[in-house]
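From the methods appendix. Each design record in this collection lists the tokenized structure first, followed by the designed amino acid sequence. Records were kept in a plain field format so they could be parsed without special tools. The example shown here is representative of the layout used throughout.

RECORD:
FOLD TOKENS (147 positions):
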């Protein structure tokens, strides 16, 4: 399974130039897996697809997910990206609540922007990604948002 071989959130997701970058080992060979993975990550982090890019698959950087075929791409890479994004969302919410106050449940994430108690300034989740420990492991049991 993809998460067993690549257990870190940073194996799957990063931020660059105000955009979320999704890393996958699945090559888009006409089935539009890149579109599907961008939508999956966007749903979990409430980001528009226009703010998400799929990194080119490169040996040594992309997760080695084996063969790209049939529905395996969504089953493997889609699940990994969803769990990584949900783990990242939870970590960002915990971080911001710890730094700026309130409970995690007091903070809301909508359209890629965090808002919560004690601040009237919107905080872009993309700007918070760099604060999260690069060794954060994906939690395959993390609650995910509705598809």
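DESIGN:
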């Amino acid at each position: 399974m993809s998460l067993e071989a690549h257990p870190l959130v940073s194996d799957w997701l990063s931020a660059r130039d105000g955009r979320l970058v999704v890393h996958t080992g699945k090559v888009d060979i006409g089935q539009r897996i890149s579109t599907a993975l961008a939508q999956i990550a966007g749903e979990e982090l409430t980001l528009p697809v226009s703010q998400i890019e799929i990194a080119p698959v490169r040996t040594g950087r992309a997760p080695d997910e084996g063969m790209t075929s049939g529905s395996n791409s969504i089953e493997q890479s889609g699940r990994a990206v969803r769990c990584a994004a949900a783990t990242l969302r939870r970590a960002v919410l915990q971080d911001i609540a710890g730094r700026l106050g309130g409970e995690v449940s007091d903070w809301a994430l909508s359209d890629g922007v965090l808002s919560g108690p004690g601040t009237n300034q919107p905080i872009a989740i993309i700007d918070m990604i760099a604060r999260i420990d690069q060794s954060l492991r994906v939690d395959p049991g993390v609650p995910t948002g509705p598809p």
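APPENDIX NOTE: The helical segments are 2-5, 9-12, 33-45, 72-100, 125-128.
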